[in-house]
Specification:
rod-shaped; binds adenosine-5'-diphosphate; 43% helix; alpha/beta; 24 strands; five-stranded parallel β-sheet; five-stranded mixed β-barrel
């Protein structure tokens, strides 16, 4: 009911002068929500009919009215009990009639009075009132002055705090010097709850009144200040958010203009991915840091690409992705048998190895290392193990790796830096516990770029590889769940430190029969399937397979055999497609139509056609092989030339042979002055392949003696053995591989040092049955066996010692 119309208040110092007696029949006007103070001038809306009447009559009769505030503003027709008993006597100054019949009446407060007794309730409340006496302190009371000055200060402050406050009203108050009116006007102005305002009205002691004002004002100021502070803070945070939003929008607009909008998308996508994937907390922290860096980087900066690549790696590593192991030993056995023919001891060793891991419930431990010539199934055994265990399978070759960084990665500061092969393989596997085959571990080199072996040692050490640190990744990756399997061609070239760490399982070369079985059961079905053929469409007999092995492959394993079978399948598939035949049968005679590559002729016979050529047996990491040594002579002055990438040890064998021949020229039937009249050239063909080792000694000596005596060497004989200047024959290594190579090459007899006799036990029966072994201790025995009589008399020397393996 308070009017918003501004009414100028006037000072009313006369208002309360001298009304202390009680008065009867004063009309009482109830007010809702308003406590009226003396001195206050204010329009009131009067709506209740009884009140309208009261006002009109009072105005007419120039009567004062007591305004009392309702205790409860919700009561519509208040009785005397609903009103506070103390109020203010007012004078009606003016009445306005509103269009709806209600009245707006301007009243002026005069003095405070108490309602004593009701005399009539109709048509409006009328009763007896008692004027209230104020206790006014003396004007020069210091305390009052201080209170007043305090209130003035507070009002000024309030004026600043309340920008919407009415300046004129405040001005009026400030200019009121009469203390009591000043206090009333301040009280009237306060926006405080009715009971508190009423309490002020009822306070008769001026000092107390002023005190209460100070308290109320302080509260208002405090509240106001607090609310302003909150307001400011809210505003602040809104401002900040708004500012950031605007800046971001601007940035987006700029990026769009520069055509870099998609880079922002890239960052967003990465963030999304980071939220989705599982990774250890410390790695997530690193990724988040990098992502934040990336989001503020210009995509044109070189570092942007570097950081983005790095993040790609962090986000794509299978940090916590694992496959469930199934370590059912019988299942593993089934799988190994299904995939590989023979290899019984190898398979048993693998099963034992896995069984121990299973019992220990721990896949850590020594690393398996398969050692054997190429193509014997080392890598594919690894794949079978992975498959049987339900693990992912990855492999990479260490052949020719010389740089530690290839294992451990380059630091990110290098241009084009990448993680090492280990981390790359793990990413490729997509799980943190794959079977990882480290191929050709015996081929790691070492040079100025650092030693990869040391990095490998760390990788293979179950104690250390929990925190394997790649230079590029920088954060550690746990490799302890990876099942490492290494493969090597030869134990000799394997670094001893690595060898110690591994459980070696040797896989021997295959003999012909085994190869035929492998081809029939594994390689051929595999190739048929790969070429979309069925068994019925391509018929190949065992004899044909044997022919392929014999004449088109010369290897310890079955890798080339597999390729040749692929050739056959390809040719057959083509004929079936082109000629619409239903079935292709391949016989030996037509093999050249299908297999394009070089055929291996049983060449030994043809090669050994003149004096000076001998057949040696060599051991290479890819299995055994035969090798020819050719010597030729020309007029000269005893110059010795050796060609064919012959390394030092083999060269020394030539020298030793020359010396032996010189020393024994007479017995051997060699012209004693040959060193003055002849130049000699020794060549070891297949000149691109470096050759070394002392085991070619007997072959050198045989070739040279053959040359100098004009006696041809037997063409069905392969030989191996080291020689001494005294003519002794010393034992050599790799007997089994060498004998198998001789057998493959179709040689009928093999000459070996006597001290290698024990090694013959390793040779499969099927091979030793077909070969005659000559075990020798001295060079003269060698020459007696190897050299044919002049004039090509094929009869061999009586002194020859022929020996066959006991059980052959
Ligand atoms: P390595 O790793 O020893 O050089 P691979 O594992 O690459 O040899 O083998 C070459 C091919 O020969 C593969 O296709 C493999 O399946 C096959 N192979 C080798 N040994 C056998 C075997 N005993 N039984 C069946 N297939 C074999």
């Amino acid at each position: 009911m308070q009017d918003n119309e501004q009414v100028q208040q006037t000072q009313t110092s006369q208002a309360n002068a001298g009304h202390t007696e009680s008065q009867a029949d004063i009309p009482v006007l109830p007010l809702r929500n308003i406590v009226f103070f003396p001195g206050q001038i204010m329009p009131l809306f009067v709506g209740r009919p009884s009140s309208v009447r009261l006002i009109e009559e009072a105005h007419q009769k120039q009567r004062s009215v007591l305004v009392l505030t309702q205790r409860d503003s919700s009561v519509d027709v208040p009785h005397s009990r609903d009103l506070y008993t103390k109020g203010t006597v007012v004078r009606v100054v003016k009445i306005y009639t509103m269009p709806d019949g209600s009245k707006s009446v301007v009243v002026q407060g005069q003095y405070r009075a108490e309602f004593l007794r009701m005399t009539s309730e109709e048509p409006y409340l009328v009763g007896e009132i008692q004027l209230l006496e104020e206790r006014i302190p003396s004007v020069d009371d210091v305390e009052v002055a201080a209170l007043v000055s305090n209130i003035r200060t507070q009002l000024k402050k309030l004026e600043q705090l309340l920008p919407e406050s009415n300046p004129e009203q405040l001005n009026l108050i400030m200019n009121t010097h009469e203390m009591e009116t000043f206090a009333f006007l301040v009280a009237a102005m306060l926006n405080i709850p009715v009971p508190e305002k009423q309490d002020l009205l009822e306070t008769m002691d001026l000092k107390e009144f002023l005190n209460k004002l100070v308290v109320q004002l302080s509260k208002i100021i405090q509240r106001q200040e607090l609310s302003q502070k909150i307001q400011a803070e809210v505003q602040d945070s809104i401002n900040k958010a708004q500012r950031e939003y605007f800046l971001r929008e601007q940035l987006r607009a700029i990026k769009k203009e520069l055509g870099e909008e998609k880079d922002q998308l890239e960052v967003d996508e990465m963030r999304k991915k980071l939220d989705e994937i599982e990774m250890p907390d410390e790695i997530r922290a690193v990724a988040e840091k990098e992502l934040n860096r990336l989001s503020v980087m210009s995509p044109a900066a070189a570092e942007y690409g570097v950081t983005r690549n790095y993040l790609d790696w962090l986000l794509e590593m299978p940090w916590q992705v694992r496959t469930e192991d199934s370590l059912d030993i019988s299942r593993v056995k089934e799988q190994l048998d299904r995939d590989h023919y023979g290899l019984e001891t190898v398979k048993n060793r693998i099963l034992e190895f896995l069984a121990v891991r299973k019992l220990k419930n721990d896949m850590r431990g020594p690393i398996l290392c398969f050692v054997g010539p190429p193509g014997v199934g080392k890598t594919s055994l690894g794949r079978s193990i992975a498959e049987a265990m339900g693990r992912k399978y990855v492999r990479f070759s260490l052949g020719g790796v010389r740089d530690e960084a290839e294992i451990r990665g380059h630091r990110r500061t290098y241009i084009g830096a990448l993680p090492g092969r280990i981390i790359q393989s793990i990413k490729k596997a997509g799980s943190s516990n794959p079977v990882l085959v480290l191929d050709e571990i015996d081929k790691v080199g070492m040079d100025f770029r650092g030693d990869p072996t040391s990095a490998l040692l760390e990788v293979l050490d179950p104690e250390q590889n929990v925190h394997f640190s790649d230079h590029y990744l920088e954060v550690p990756f746990d490799l302890s769940n990876v099942l490492f399997i290494a493969t090597a061609n030869s134990l000799d070239t394997l670094q001893p430190a690595l060898r110690d760490r591994m459980e070696i399982i040797e896989i021997p070369s295959y003999i012909l029969d085994e190869k035929v079985h492998i081809a029939r059961r594994h390689l051929l079905p595999k190739q048929l399937a790969e070429h979309g053929l069925t068994e019925k469409q391509l018929v190949i007999g065992d004899d044909v397979i044997r022919g392929v092995i014999d004449r088109y492959t010369r290897e310890a394993g079955v890798r080339n055999l597999e390729r040749k079978l692929a050739d056959l399948c390809r040719g057959a598939a083509r004929r079936i497609a082109e000629e619409t035949v239903k079935k292709v049968t391949i016989r030996e005679a037509v093999l050249p139509d299908y297999i394009t590559s070089r055929k291996f002729y049983p060449e030994v016979a043809e090669r050994i056609c003149s004096p000076g050529i001998a057949t040696g047996l060599a051991w290479t990491p890819v299995g055994g092989d035969i090798l020819f040594i050719e010597a030729t002579k020309m007029k000269g002055k005893g110059r010795l030339t050796i060609t064919g990438q012959v390394r030092d040890v083999m060269k020394e064998s030539v020298q030793a042979a020359m010396s032996y021949i010189s020393a024994n020229a007479k017995q051997l039937g060699v012209p004693e002055d040959f060193r003055d009249t002849l130049d000699i050239h020794v060549h070891v063909p297949a000149g691109a392949v470096p050759k070394d080792g002392p085991s070619a000694g007997v072959t050198m000596l045989t070739a040279l003696t053959s040359l100098l005596t004009d006696r041809i060497v037997r063409n069905d004989l392969g030989m191996t053995g080291e020689i001494t200047l005294r003519g002794q024959v010393l034992p050599i290594g790799g007997v089994k591989e060498k004998v198998l190579a001789a057998h493959r090459a179709g040689l009928k007899s093999v000459l070996l040092p006597k001290r290698n006799e024990d090694d013959l036990k390793e040779i499969p029966d099927s091979v030793s049955r077909e070969i005659t072994f000559h075990l020798v201790e001295r060079m003269d025995e060698v020459l007696a066996i190897a050299l044919q009589e002049k004039r090509r008399n094929r009869k061999s020397t009586k002194k020859s010692i022929e020996s066959r393996k006991e059980n052959s």
